[in-house]
């Protein structure tokens, strides 16, 4: 029978720091820099257009971005005046789902509202 290993075992990514001993035999733990980065976050942005009713945009922001009516109205007005506005910041998958939901709701209602997600920073 052949007992040869089919894969060379991988080295652990972050091997434990060996305790260093100083001259007085005290154990010194080495400080390591944290290498894991937080996940990239994505902001969901609505774009202004000349046709989608303000009330529809407010309702979309309330429903899909969990904003109260006043906050949703402020965001809608910012988009209306400045051309675009951030409605929320999420992980990539959640942001993508929000975009799909908003576009689906807008198309179903016959509005040209545009929505996109982009990495934060
Ligand atoms: N500009 C639109 C209007 O005057 C309102 C609007 C606001 C449309 C925000 C889209 O993302 C938008 N009816």
Give a written overview of the molecule.
With 121 residues, the chain is α+β, with helices and mostly antiparallel strands. It has helices at 54-65, 69-82, 92-108; strands spanning 20-21, 27-28, 42-47, 84-90, 114-119. The strands form two sheets. The chain has a three-stranded antiparallel sheet with strand order 4-3-5. It has a two-stranded antiparallel sheet with strand order 1-2. Strand 1 and strand 2 (27-28) form a beta hairpin. Helix 1 (54-65) packs across helix 2 and helix 1 (54-65) packs antiparallel against helix 3 (92-108). The termini are far apart. L-tyrosinamide binds next to strand 3, helix 1 and helix 2. This is ATP-dependent Clp protease adapter protein ClpS.
Give a brief rundown of this model.
By secondary structure, this protein is of the alpha+beta class. The chain contains 3 helices and 5 strands.
Structural class: alpha+beta
- Do you know the CATH topology of the domain at 49-119? Ribosomal Protein L30, Chain: A
What general form does the structure show? Answer: elongated
Rg is: 26 Å
Largest sheet: 3 strands, antiparallel
- The fraction of residues in strands falls at 15-25%
Ligands: L-tyrosinamide
Q: Would you identify the regions where 5 or more consecutive residues have pLDDT less than 50?
A: 1-6, 8-12, 14-22
- Strand order within the widest sheet? 4-3-5
Total count of helical runs of at least 4 residues: 3
Tally the beta strands.
5
Series of H and E elements: EEEHHEHE
């Amino acid at each position: 029978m052949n007992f040869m290993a089919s894969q060379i075992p991988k080295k652990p990514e972050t091997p434990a720091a060996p305790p260093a001993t100083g001259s007085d035999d005290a154990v010194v733990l080495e400080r390591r820099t944290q290498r894991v980065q937080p996940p990239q976050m994505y902001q969901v942005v609505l774009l202004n257009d000349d046709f989608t009713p303000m009330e529809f945009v407010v309702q979309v922001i309330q429903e899909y971005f969990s904003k109260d009516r006043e906050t949703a109205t402020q965001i809608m007005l910012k988009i209306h005046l400045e051309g675009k506005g951030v409605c929320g910041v999420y992980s990539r998958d959640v942001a993508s789902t929000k975009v799909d939901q908003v576009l689906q709701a807008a198309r179903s209602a016959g509005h040209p509202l545009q929505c996109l997600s982009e990495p934060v920073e």
